[in-house]
């Protein structure tokens, strides 16, 4: 790969990406553009601007953007229409943020005339795959620079030495080994590494940042009502809100009641297992509520088909194929299923749990007349079940008869 002339860097303002910024300048002698996305990680982003300026980046080459609404509306909500869970448990909080960041990197590269993009993901993880597959899907000619796969700064000591040699400020707590690594956005927090690397040891409680310990949560349950239109949440307790505002409010409620904690050993796409601590308070409530409204509005055939493709859909997102044709094809099927998924669900929050306790909809398929144990006024003739059973039993009886002949 020829040396890039201008690079758009996914920049957090932290030590690692600050070192990468300087390394790009010294290694390639190229112009650097920084992009910092506000995805609801809960940090002040203005220091990233000041640090970039200090490292020699022109103000016009610094992009800091609030992408919370786009993140929830165009990435999180479509994923939640599918009830997506990777390996049956993980709500894909990190996975779903990467295609949005990569999309903006490629767009800013086009706007600024840059011929390359760069990220700070290591060569051991999934994020390098997600960033790069997304970038190539959107611009097959783009160059992607992954410093962790190129440089010789292979230890924390070497990183700190490089920082000191290049006058890059080092936070005091970075001089020792960081206790664990954290990724955060409006959907979740993810913690891994160091004190979490031994899956045989319980994670210390200080790892959790968004949720109180369920044992310390309020002793009184709290009810929250979530209203959906065509599969997307649109209101909480009757108050219409934007997508990002809904997830923010659900995070507050879930965090207060200790909802959404997950200790998971997962299978990374690159082949190894890793242990992560995830907190997805609002997402856990949202998934429960979405399941609740589907229970009365989604036909069994549609619902069972949708459930059967969910693991494949979740795996595509986890592995970085958000912009693949197969994910888009599955999304079209999922979105078609949501045409009548509208109504309201009441969820009970209590000591780490979020449980549907009521649901209602103008689009309901639930018929009390058909299921009642009382008089049904002729809505259902129970005698019809006899023929239904006989027809379904026919092949089983033929198999049993054949097998009996060969015993």
TrEMBL record:
InterPro entries per UniProt: Arginosuc_syn_C, Arginosuc_syn_N, Arginosuc_synth, Arginosuc_synth_CS, Arginosuc_synth_type_1_subfam, AS_cat/multimer_dom_body, Rossmann-like_a/b/a_fold
GO molecular function: argininosuccinate synthase activity; ATP binding
Pathway: Amino-acid biosynthesis; L-arginine biosynthesis; L-arginine from L-ornithine and carbamoyl phosphate: step 2/3
Primary enzyme class: ligase
Gene Ontology biological process: argininosuccinate metabolic process; L-arginine biosynthetic process; urea cycle
Residue ranges of every copy of the Arginosuccinate synthase-like N-terminal domain listed in the record: 6-169
Keywords attached to this entry: Amino-acid biosynthesis, Arginine biosynthesis, ATP-binding, Cytoplasm, Ligase, Nucleotide-binding
Pfam families referenced in this protein's UniProt entry, alphabetically: Arginosuc_syn_C, Arginosuc_synth
GO cellular component, one term: cytoplasm
Annotated compartments: Cytoplasm
TM annotation in the entry: none
Domain of life where this protein originates: Bacteria
Catalyzed reactions: L-citrulline + L-aspartate + ATP = 2-(N(omega)-L-arginino)succinate + AMP + diphosphate + H(+)
Binding site for L-citrulline: 90, 95, 126, 130, 181, 190, 266, 278
Record CDD domains: ASS
Quaternary structure note: Homotetramer.
Family named by the database record: Belongs to the argininosuccinate synthase family. Type 1 subfamily.
Protein name per UniProt: Argininosuccinate synthase
Native source organism of the sequence: Phaeovulum veldkampii DSM 11550
Species classification: Bacteria, Pseudomonadati, Pseudomonadota, Alphaproteobacteria, Rhodobacterales
């Amino acid at each position: 790969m020829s040396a890039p002339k201008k690079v758009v860097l996914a920049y957090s303002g932290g030590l690692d990406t600050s070192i990468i910024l300087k390394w790009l300048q010294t290694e390639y002698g190229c112009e650097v553009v920084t992009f910092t996305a506000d995805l609801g990680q809960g940090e002040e982003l203005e220091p990233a601007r000041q640090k970039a300026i200090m490292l020699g980046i022109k103000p016009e080459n610094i992009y800091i953007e609030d992408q919370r609404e786009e993140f929830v509306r165009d990435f999180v909500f479509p994923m939640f229409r599918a009830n997506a869970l990777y390996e049956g448990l993980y709500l894909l909080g990190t996975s779903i943020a990467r295609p949005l960041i990569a999309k903006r990197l490629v767009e800013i590269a086009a706007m600024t005339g840059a011929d390359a993009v760069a990220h700070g993901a290591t060569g051991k993880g999934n994020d390098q795959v997600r960033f790069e597959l997304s970038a190539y899907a959107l611009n097959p000619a783009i160059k992607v620079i992954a410093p962790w796969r190129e440089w010789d700064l292979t230890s924390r000591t070497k990183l700190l030495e490089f920082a000191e040699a290049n006058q890059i400020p080092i936070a005091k707590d970075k001089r020792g080994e960081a206790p664990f690594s954290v990724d955060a956005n409006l959907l979740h927090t993810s913690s891994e590494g160091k004190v979490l690397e031994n899956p045989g040891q319980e994670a210390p409680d200080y790892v959790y940042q968004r949720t109180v310990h369920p044992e310390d949560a309020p002793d009184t349950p709290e009810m929250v009502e979530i209203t959906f239109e065509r599969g997307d949440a649109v209101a909480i307790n009757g108050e219409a809100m934007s997508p990002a505002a809904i997830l923010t409010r659900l995070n507050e409620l879930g965090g207060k009641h200790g909802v959404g904690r997950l200790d998971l050993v997962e299978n990374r796409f690159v082949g190894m297992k890793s242990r992560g601590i995830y907190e997805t308070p609002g997402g856990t409530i949202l998934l429960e509520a979405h399941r609740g409204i589907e229970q009365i509005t989604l036909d069994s055939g549609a619902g069972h088909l949708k459930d059967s493709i969910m693991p494949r859909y979740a795996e595509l997102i986890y592995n970085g194929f958000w912009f693949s044709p197969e994910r888009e094809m599955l999304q079209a099927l999922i979105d078609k299923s949501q045409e009548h998924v509208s109504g309201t669900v009441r969820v009970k929050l209590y000591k780490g749990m979020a449980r549907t306790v009521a649901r209602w909809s103008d689009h309901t398929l639930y018929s009390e007349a058909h299921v009642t144990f009382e008089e049904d006024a002729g809505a259902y003739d129970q005698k019809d079940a006899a023929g239904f059973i006989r027809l379904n039993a026919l092949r089983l009886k033929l198999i049993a008869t054949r097998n009996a002949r060969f015993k």
